[in-house]
Amino acid sequence: MAKVFASQRLPGDALERLGLHCELEVWPEPTPIPPGVLAERLQGCVGLVCLLTNRVGRDLLAACPDLRFVSSMSVGVDHVAVAALTERRIPLGNTPGVLADTTADLNMALLLAAARRIPEADRYVRDGCWKPERPWYPGMFVGKDISGATLGIVGLGEIGQAVARRARGFGMRLLGWTRSGRAVEGVESVSLEAVLAQSDFVSVNVALSKDTRMLIDAEAIAGMKPGAVLVNTARGGIVDEQALAQALQSGALFAAGIDVFEREPVLMDNPLLQLPNVVVAPHIGSASQRTREQMAALAVDNMIAALRGERMPHCVNPEVFD
Questions:
Q1: Going by fewer Cβ within 10 Å, which terminus of the chain is more open, N or C?
Q2: Peptide bond preceding 138 in cis form (omega within 30 of 0)
Q3: Which listed residue (21, 41, 235, 314) is catalytic?
Q4: Domains of the chain, with CATH numbers?
């Protein structure tokens, strides 16, 4: 029976289903498997079910000559050397189409929390600062209006479109930019520069690639509308964190909501963590029970199909089957 290694336990019963089709080994710890240990555990394995925390690079592939299939429980695959897999005719599965709504929900939650300064107000109450001698006053935690504001969406894929649908419910004007030039109903397509210059809120929803790395760099941030709010639930590395922190500290931007960082887990000396006008989360865009179970199910479906000699239902590099 073919051997498959799963780099971590997955939600739901997905791995139990996979175990019916192969000799399955699962990394038992809640923390990510060290790269060197992963290479050891993959010896003799034809399949790997991995997460975005597992780097699948050329060095790992060179150390694992038996590996024939990889399935990642993620939509983005920037943690995988896709070209190297394709060269070896190894199909790579991913899990699209199930996390757009969940991530868009978090996107709007961060936007609202940053705009209305909810974490600051929460800390103010919990720290005992709201006292009779410091009662309500008109300037207390004044934020930004969402209704009637302009939202600029950078990237109009599934998640960007889901963000647009939610924003329409708040009566927002919608601007959008996408590399493909995709037209989305209700979203005015403009240049990236126009999105940044005209938007009260900017939502980053593009995938990380060599073309989008540092897409929102210091120059782009300098071109944003004064007092704007930036939200990133896409990937770290798309936004220049140092430049963003400087703009927030200087008052050029009002606030930010950040779910993803260039280095994860984020280092405690990251300047964004020192600012009260930044709302942060630990990469939880898809973190709902239903969505995580659906992602696990798709990752396992991809692997089961590959073990059967069939095409993966969701394959990043389908040319390997040609």
A1: C
A2: no
A3: 235
A4: 3-97+289-321 (3.40.50.720), 100-280 (3.40.50.720)
